[in-house]
Amino acid sequence: MTNNRIVCRIDLAQLSENFNFLRQCAKNCRLMPVLKYDAYGMGAHAVGNALKAAGAFRFAAATLDEALELKKLGLDVQILGVLPPWEIAEAVAADIICPVDNIQLAGQISAEAQRQQKSVRIAVKLDTGMGRLGIQEKNALTVIPEIMKMPGVQADSLFSHFSTAAQPDIFFAGLQLDRFIRIKEQLDKAGIVFPFYHHAAGDAIAKLPRATEAPFNLARPGGMMYGDDFTGKCRQIIELAAHVGEIRELPAGASVGYYRTFIAGKPLKVAVLTAGYADGIPLALSNRGRVIIRGKLCPIVGRISMDYTIVDVSAVPDAAAGDEAILLGKRQDAEITVAEWGQIKGTHGHDIWCAIGHRVKREYIG
After folding, report:
1. Cα(100)–Cα(109) distance, rounded to whole angstroms?
2. Given 72, 118, 258, 361, which residue is catalytic?
3. What is the maximum span of the chain, computed from C-alpha positions, in angstroms?
4. Mind listing the pLDDT tens digit for each residue in 232-241?
5. Residue 3: CB partners within 8 Å, gap ≥ 6?
6. Catalytically annotated residue among 36, 125, 184, 296
7. Is 258 annotated as catalytic?
8. Is pTM beyond 0.85 here?
9. CA-CA distance, 99 to 61, in Å (whole number)?
């Protein structure tokens, strides 16, 4: 047991198992794990090394700073999102695979590549229905040929982003695939061929076979790889644990926490935990969530504070200061999942992981 007030344990062995499951689903696609936001807050260096050992082909990042850090792990890195003008020179110098979704950006990258006397690999993004970034279908056959004529740029990949692949109804995702393939086939006729084509993230890898069949030969596992999984095949890789800082006996009628949102209806034994919303415990769990102490589920009572969470330990008569409190994870027959937190908060696993605070120590097992 750790002596830290709160710790996030990341199971790298389970991560590798999840990765291998997705690799099997992806058929002949190589995998480009998404390690944006420091691997969703889990530590890009440790997670990236584990995935590299498991067979990752390259990595994906959201920003240049992330890409430069990931480059140190020895694999190619593609930026998925926006590349601002002031970051172009450094991205070109570092041989980052640069995203392009408009002709102005392509021209800036081309000019910088010529200035540095380099050839820059570019990933051209299509907007097949996400509506956020990408070249629209109506412009693709005009814009993309112009981009590929520019000196200093080299075709690496053509890619897009699903907007509904995580939802039960995948009809619109099918329309997105149709648009992508229609554009790809017309570019083929114009003699424009990319080494890589990718559209699928984790959900699509597992549930949309078309997204991992030709012409697609690359896929981008993200949330499912970390355990945010609708199939039940990818297990949660994190455990979040705090400690009981103090045990208190409250009389009937006592209020708990800010705003008195909980009033004890009877004498109550409570534990004050050494973690709060600053550590990533959703405020929405106030009076609704639960933790595990000595293998027993204990309800959260009162409003969660920045640094503390109070739980009813009446079901754990031997609970004591120093006991470990499992916020996310499993002990004996009791389990609390990221999905449970997401349902209470009205969100999903990505939001939960990224909210785990910087003072939470990360430890790696497996």
Report:
1. 9
2. 258
3. 79
4. 889 999 999 9
5. none
6. 36
7. yes
8. yes
9. 11
